[in-house]
Amino acid sequence: MAAGQDNPFHAKSALRTKLRTRRARASAARAAEAGAALATRFIDRFGAGMDGKVVAAYWPMRDEIDVRPLVGLVSSRSAICALPVMSGKADPLIFRRWRPGDELVDASFGVKEPLASAPPIAPDIVIVPLLGFDAAGNRLGYGGGYYDRTLASLRAAGRALAVGVGYDEQETDRIPVHAGDMPLDMILTDRRTIVPGKTERTD
């Protein structure tokens, strides 16, 4: 057996390269259309019960599916929006309240974050970016572990539904997993809703 063949870290690295290409192609083909479709799918799923709920999203970069239309719709539905802030390389993310039009600042890795003066807030729903996912709810991120640490912390406190979002093409047969990887509760793509462990898988 070749060295590293069954090593999840090695397998993830190879898979990231493959899925970055898939995501880039999907984004080039239909970025604006996909962002609008994702927003509609999210509201159809959660809109009836969002009053007063805290929805933590992210500011998209590179070829990530555009969640800004989703944030706009959430903000118009009496929900509270938040964006993540990195507090340390080995720490969970914190979330600060943000409204469309509020100022953002440049942070590490090209990420945009709310101002430090924005109040921290605990989310009820976390919208999670990803490079890939599988039908079991396993997620492939960028390798920093930020969302894994964050979801572990939130779940230990009994909070937060984790909703992964991406293009349909980002699904793969199996994501390699290791200790510390946090599964998603649901995946929304621009074309489908996937609830791991259930038969629900709608077009």
Summarize the main sheet. Answer: 8 strands, mixed
* Low-pLDDT windows of residues: none
What kind of oligomer do you see? single chain
Number of strands: 12
Tell me the structural class: alpha/beta
Q: CATH homologous superfamily - what is it?
A: NagB/RpiA/CoA transferase-like
Rg, alpha carbons: 16 Å
Estimate nothing, just give the exact number of structural domains: 1
CATH topology: Rossmann fold
Examine the secondary-structure arrangement and name the CATH architecture.
3-Layer(aba) Sandwich
Helix content: 25-40%
Overall morphology? globular
Distance between the termini: 40 Å
Note the beta-strand portion: 15-25%
Number of helices: 3
Mean pLDDT: 91
Strand order of the largest sheet: 3-2-1-6-9-10-11-12
Query: What is the C-level CATH assignment?
Result: Alpha Beta
Helix and strand pattern: HEHEEEEEEEHEEEE
Tags for this model:
alpha/beta, Rossmann fold, 203 residues, eight-stranded mixed sheet, two-stranded antiparallel sheet
Question: What does this molecule look like?
Answer:
With 203 residues, the protein is of the alpha/beta class. It has one domain: NagB/RpiA/CoA transferase-like (Rossmann fold), CATH 3.40.50.10420. Helix content is 29%, strand content 20%. It is built from 3 helices and 12 strands, in the order H-E-H-E-E-E-E-E-E-E-H-E-E-E-E. The protein has helices at 8-46, 68-75, 146-156, and strands spanning 54-56, 80-85, 94-97, 104-106, 112-114, 125-128, 132-133, 139-140, 161-166, 186-189, 193-194, 201-202. The strands form 3 sheets. Strands 3-2-1-6-9-10-11-12 form an 8-stranded mixed β-sheet. A two-stranded antiparallel ribbon has the order 4-5. A hairpin with a 6-residue loop joins strand 11 (193-194) and strand 12 (201-202). Helix 1 (8-46) runs parallel beside helix 2 (68-75). The radius of gyration is 16 Å and the shape is globular. The relative contact order is 0.17.
